[in-house]
Amino acid sequence: MRNFDFAPLYRSTIGFDHLTSLLDSVTQREQSQPSYPPYNIELLSKDKYRITMAIAGFVDEELQIQSEQRTLTVRGKKADDGKERNFLHQGIAGRDFERVFQLADHVKVTSASLENGLLNIDLERELPEAMKPRQIAINGKLAQLLDNKPA
Q1: For a Cys-Cys bond, which of 2, 40, 65, 76 suits 52, CB 3.0-4.6 Å?
Q2: Model confidence over 86-99: pLDDT tens digits?
Q3: How many CB atoms lie within 10 A of CB 75?
């Protein structure tokens, strides 16, 4: 396991002290999380993302997607069809799974779709108005300049 020294980070930043615990939890989760089902994470545009999971053989009734606080959990529970099968080779994994993703602040799930054995989950970061860049007036001069600017 890797150990990170965050001392240089603490010298010039404020409010990132939770970063250490976040990285530790992600490292531990990656070591314990199985590799099934395989997935991709795409950056579609500046604040839009897509998770694509290969879940051949699952139907939407067998899947559960839950977003709670900053965690996205995808579960698949294969329904028993009652047929007894005698596989000579079973290369298509049809087992139950649970995959957990840590989401950054203000990232929300916008939609999910299942097509051709691929589960697509679309996410978007929506910054609140209070967190967007804004001009700070010095002695009210900014407001005066903006009011007097030519049309």
Answers
A1: 40
A2: 889 988 877 899 99
A3: 14
The continuous run of DSSP H or E covering 90 comes out as: none
Q: What is d(CA 138, CA 151) in angstroms, rounded to the nearest whole number?
A: 23
Which residues are bridge partners to 69 per DSSP? none
| Measured distance CA(2)–CA(105) in Å, rounded | 25
Nearest-angstrom CA–CA distance, 64 and 26? 22
Cα dihedral: 105, 3, 15, 50 (round 10):
-10
The full set of domains in the chain, from first to last, is 1-32 (no CATH), 36-80+89-129 (2.60.40.790)
**Is the distance from CB of 50 to CB of 41 less than 8 angstroms?**
yes
Q: Is the pTM of this model over 0.70?
A: no
C-alpha triplet 119, 125, 128: angle, nearest 5°: 150
Rg (C-alpha) for the chain, rounded Å, is 23
